[in-house]
Amino acid sequence: RAGQWIEDNFRARDALGGYSGGFEGWENSKGSPAGSTKIGWRSTEHCIDLYVAFSKLAIAKKSAVWQERAYHARQFALNMWEDGRFWMGIKDSSGEKNKEAVPTDVQVWSVLGMGHDTEYRRRTGWPGPPSIPACVAWVDKKCRVESKSAGDPSGYLFSDKGKGCWFEGAAQLAAVYGYLGNIERGEAVLAEVVRA
Question: pLDDT digit string (tens) for 92-111?
Fold first, then answer.
């Protein structure tokens, strides 16, 4: 039912594909007579999540309808691919890409959620494991921080504009390295989280 509600309310019907961000505000009530308003932005991360969820529904229900919906979500995520990384999404229904920051999670989540997908591999130019996808190399280059003093952890920022280590993202990156078969690198990333 939740998947159908997303389809009914948030499917974007333009060339970018995907699903918009939801509603903002509260339902109609005495304190909020106008009710909620639909959000126009679209998130690459959310569309990766929906690609995975709808793909699982397609398998569970043996349904081509849910598979098409998964591909619609994937379409948006792949449309955010540019110059070796994924943009955050779009700002509003105008389709303007949100280039304020490039999040770490979108890069690593794309590999975990879509790395098996042939269209993902084709669009990103990644041949598959054990090679390092360009978006993961981007994270290592743009979001990696090294300790500058005792007690100051090494690790990964939330985005290229982030400050301070983001341990959830480091754990996601460790999982990516595991998927790629680079267990040693994955364990090294997790060891930094444990030391922090």
Answer: 988 999 999 999 999 999 99
Whole-structure pTM value:
0.92
Please give the Cα distance from 30 to 40 (Å, whole number).
Answer: 26
Mean pLDDT of 124-141: 97
CA 16 to chain centre: 16
Q: How far is 85 from 57, CA to CA, in rounded Å?
A: 28
**What would the mean pLDDT of 41-48 be, rounded to a whole number?**
97
Are the beta carbons of 123 and 92 closer than 8 angstroms?
no
Type of residue numbered 34: A
Distance from C-alpha of 14 to C-alpha of 1, rounded to nearest angstrom: 24
Number of CB atoms found within 10 A of residue 151's CB: 6
Report the distance separating Cα 115 and Cα 121, nearest Å: 7
Average pLDDT over residues 157-184: 95
Peptide bond before residue 153 is cis, with ω within 30 degrees of 0: no
CB count within 10 Å of CB 63 equals 13
Average pLDDT, the chain: 94
CA distance 34 to 27: 8
**C-alpha distances out from residue 93 to 7, 68, 189, Å:** 17, 22, 38
Measured in whole angstroms, how far is the alpha carbon of residue 109 from the centre of its chain?
A: 5
